[in-house]
Amino acid sequence: MSALPFADRTDAGERLADLLEDRGVSADRVLAIPRGGLPVGRAVADALSIPLDVIVARKVGAPDNPELAIGAVGADGSLWRNDALIHQLNVPEAYVESRAAREAQAAREKRDRYRGSRGPLDLAGEAALIVDDGIATGATAVACIRQARAGGARRVALAAPVAPPEVVADLETEADDVLALVTPADFGAVGRFYRSFDPVADEVAMGYLDG
Question: pTM of the predicted model, to two decimals?
Answer without folding.
Answer: 0.94
